[in-house]
Amino acid sequence: MPLHYIAWKQALDEWGCEFPEDLFYAWGGRPVADIIASLNERQGLDMPVEAVALRRERLYRGLLPQLTAVPEVLQHIEHAHQRVPFAVVSGSTRDSVTASLTTLGLLDRFDVLVCAGDYTKAKPDPEGFLLAAQLLGVPPQSCLVFEDTDMGIQAATAAGMAAVRVPQPWQR
User: Fold this and answer.
1) Architecture in CATH for domain 71-171
2) Is 113 helix (H, G, I), strand (E, B) or coil?
3) Domain 2-65 carries which CATH code?
4) Which of 42, 59, 43 has the alpha carbon at shortest distance from 51?
5) Region 88-96: what's the mean pLDDT?
6) What share of the chain is helix, strand, coil (3-state, %, to 5)?
7) Which partner for 94 in 13, 62, 115, 146 could form a disulfide, CB atoms 3.0-4.6 Å apart?
8) Which strand (E) or helix (H) includes residue 66?
9) Domain extents in the chain
10) Phi-psi bin for 110: left (phi > 0), alpha (psi -120 to 50), beta?
11) 27, 35 in Cβ contact below 8 A?
C-alpha cells in the first residue's frame, strides 16, 4: 500500500488533485477507476479516468523494485503454502497484482487471483471474496482473510469469513 500511495500522489499531483493518506487507506480495495471518478466529483475536477489510471500504474511499476512483503503475513504464506489454498482479492488490475506478486517472488503461492474486472461490486461488498472462495472450492466460513483496509474487513465479514487486520506500516 505505501508504494501505491506514492504512485497515486505523483499521478494526481500532475492534475492538482488532493488525495490525503487517510482517505487513500479508507478507500483501499476500491477499483482505480472508481477512485478517480470519486476524486473528480469531490474536487470538481475533470481528470481523464483512463489516462490517470495508466499514469498511476506506470508510476507504481517504476516503484516495484522497492516493494517488500509484510513479514508476518509472509510467514503465514510460507508456513501454509501447499497445505492451504490461497487467493488474492484486489481492486487492482490483474497485471498490477501479477507484477507485484512476481516482484515479491510469491506469484506461485496463489492458486486464484480475483482482480478488478473479475467482479462487479467493489469492497465492502463481499462479491470478490465469495468468488475467490468459489474458485478455490472452499466454503466461505472456512476462509481466513488478511486485510489492510476497513472496506476489506467489512467485505470479508459480509462474506462470512474470518479476517485478520494487517496494520498499516506506521502501526506495525
Assistant:
1) 3-Layer(aba) Sandwich (3.40)
2) strand
3) 1.10.150.240
4) 59
5) 92
6) 55, 10, 35
7) 115
8) none
9) 2-65, 71-171
10) beta
11) yes
Burial 127-163 (b: 16+ CB within 10 A, else e): bbbbbbbeebebebeebebbbbbbbbbbbbbbbebeb
Question: What's the whole-model pTM score?
Answer: 0.88
The rounded distance, in Å, linking the Cα atoms of 48 and 157 is 34
Question: CA 32 from chain center: how many Å?
Answer: 10
- For residue 13, the one-letter residue type is D
Q: Are the C-beta atoms of 87 and 132 separated by less than 8 Å?
A: yes
Give the torsion through C-alpha atoms of 96, 103, 167, 155, to 10 deg. Answer: 30
91 band by pLDDT with thresholds 50, 70 and 90: confident
Cell of 111: 492458486
125: how many CB neighbours lie within 10 A of its CB?
A: 16
Measure the CA dihedral 70/76/77/79, to 10°.
140
Closest CA to 24 of 51, 56, 46, 55: 56
**Which of 5-9, 96-100, 126-130, 148-152 shows the lowest per-residue confidence on average (mean pLDDT)?**
148-152
Q: How far apart are CA 168 and CA 156, in angstroms?
A: 18
